[in-house]
Every structure is written in structure tokens, then in C-alpha cells.
Amino acid sequence: MHDQPAQWILMVFVIPVWLLAGVADWICHRAADIGHTAGAKESLIHLLMFAEVGVPVLAGLFLEINALVLAVMLIAFLAHEATALWDVRYASSRRVVGPIEQHVHSFLELVPLMAIVLAAVAHWPQCLALFGGGNEAADWSLRRKEPPLPASYLLAVLASITLLEIVPFVEELLRGWREGGRKLVPRPQHDHAAGSNLRRPRPDRRDPAALSPAPTPRPRARPPPAPRR
Asked: Shortest CA distance to 176 belongs to which of 3, 47, 19?
């Protein structure tokens, strides 16, 4: 295995980084109290993105990587990027997406691209064949990986995915459904105290009263002193 550095880096570096970034994202969501702000709808978007990444991950673990698998990886990556844009657009309209969470998102967006690049390098003839180049014909068949990855490694990865990704984000979905009043999108809250995760509403520019400052109250005049007897 050590004579295939790209596959080795995928197995011992890229996949663990992806799993840790997913856990960090879940922690950020919990700290942002998305159950009361963005609700279960955002959690469903997160599960959709997980599925878009999970399909190529499972294909890379169990199938021979050829032109078909590389094409599936590219399509899933583009779908994941589009869903990530939808996720941020929706989340930022319901809550504050802090700098730490934004930094975690950068990992979640680029790690899949890193994995695709390493898979393409490890199977370069099929990568060229996918785009009509090279001397090798594109292989569009579904075949089990030969030789397969070690069973102990596969069990460790699948267990880690279940415990670190599936369980936390399903819990997030159920919590958001419960805290959001059993609705996908919870009712907006009007708590703008310090530390609130909700965005303050902008004044309506069509309403001059909303833009003009509130009048300063005049001081009340003191009554004249009573005459001395």
C-alpha cells in the first residue's frame, strides 16, 4: 500500500480530516442553537450534503475507481457545492454564521475536491479516458475493488462515519424538529438581546418614520416654588 502514496494519503489523512470537520460543524450548529433559528430545514440540508459526499466515499472504498466512478465523484462534488451555497444562504437569513463555522465550511468544501484530485492521480489513465484523452479506453463498468481494502480499515471508517456523522446530524434534525415546534422552519423570534443568534431586522426604506430618529423628549418644567409664609 505504501507504493501508492495517493491512496495512502486518502485513507489516513483526507478521510479523517473530513470526519473531524463534520464533527466541528455539528458543534458550531449546536452552539448557534439552530433548533430555534434555522430549524429542521437546515438539518435536512446538512443530511443532503452528507449523502452527496457519502456516495462517492462509499464508491471509492468498495468499487474499482474507473471513469464511471470518477464521473460520479465529480457530479456529486458539483451537487454538494450547489447545496452548500443553498445552505449558507438559508442559514445566514435565519441566524448568525460565525467566523469559526465559516472556517469549518472551507474544510468541508475543499476536502472532497482534494479527495477527487488524489483519486484521479492514483488512476490517471482512467482520468484521461474520462475526458477523451490518453491511450486507455474509458471503463464504465461497476466492479468491486481488487484487491479490496483491509476489512479492519473498512470497519473503522464505517463505524466512524456512523458515530461521528450520521448519529450527530440525525440528532440535530430531531432536536430541530422538537425545538422548532414540530415544523421545518420555526417561527421567527424577536429577541434581539446581546448574544442573540437572530439578525436584527433592517428598517424599511419606504417608511420615512423608520429611518428618522426618534424625537428627544423635552425636560418637564419644574413647578414654581411655593411662597413662604
From this structure: 47
